[in-house]
Specification:
- By secondary structure, this protein is mainly α.
- It is elongated and about 75 Å long.
- It is 59% helix and 3% strand.
- The N and C termini lie far apart (97 Å).
């Protein structure tokens, strides 16, 4: 039985998205219909590509710290893993001891992964911030490209089983996106959170507000004595 290092500790620190190839657009086969590869537009946009190039420089300190932490955790784990693997190959392995060792290794690995994620949190926020800026403009780019090409119906490749290349509107949308958003801000403002988290916080605050008492209890009126 072998125990291998896994997860973010043994894996790479940052996975860069590979730009998706965009086929050249041809004349529309049927006027009024277009297909747009949403992911390809984002990955090939100037704003996204420039941010991917700038981020390793801007966040070099965090990336270096995460790399160092990864190496430290791996160095700490290696003798434990080697010991576990060696003892597991014994003729009569001590199962309780092996289980305890496995738990220790897993705990160290999980703690290391959490620390690395914490170190890289500013990098992750930067990535989310750039993508949100692009997403905020991509609908505008799609509408502009559709209007110029006289397209009334825009589909995604996932919703189409087959289409001639003439229906491809992706390049036109990319051109429009590059025009409305030539670059994106790389560093988010202090305290910025991704849209999903902002919406969750807003929903929680709304629920808390609805659960609060609508009004304070009315004051007790003094009793009046009749004549």
């Amino acid at each position: 039985m072998k125990l291998l290092l896994k997860s973010a500790v043994a894996a790479g620190l940052v996975l860069s998205a590979t730009p998706i190839a965009i086929a050249p657009a041809a004349a529309q086969v049927v006027k009024g219909i277009g297909i747009v590869n949403y992911s390809a537009v984002i990955a090939n946009s100037n704003a996204y590509k420039n941010a991917e190039q700038q981020r390793p420089v801007t966040y070099k300190a965090q990336l270096d710290a995460a790399k160092a932490k990864k190496a430290q955790v791996e160095a700490q784990l290696k003798p434990l893993v080697d010991k576990f693997n060696a003892e597991s190959q014994a003729a009569n392995p001590n199962v309780p001891s092996l289980q305890q060792q496995a738990n220790t290794i897993q705990q160290i690995e999980q703690n290391g992964q959490r620390e690395i994620q914490s170190i890289l949190q500013p990098v992750a926020l930067s990535s989310a911030y750039v993508e949100e800026q692009i997403n905020d403009k991509i609908d505008e780019a799609i509408k502009a490209a559709a209007s110029k090409s006289k397209i009334g119906l825009v589909l995604t490749p996932d919703s189409v089983l087959h289409a001639d290349e003439g229906y491809n509107l992706t390049q036109q949308v990319l051109n429009e996106l590059n025009a409305v958003l030539p670059s994106a801000q790389l560093v988010p403002p202090q305290g910025w959170l991704p849209r999903q988290m902002r919406e969750q916080q807003a929903a929680q605050q709304q629920q808390q507000g609805a659960a609060a008492p609508a009004a304070a209890p009315a004051a007790t009126q003094p009793a009046t004595s009749g004549r």
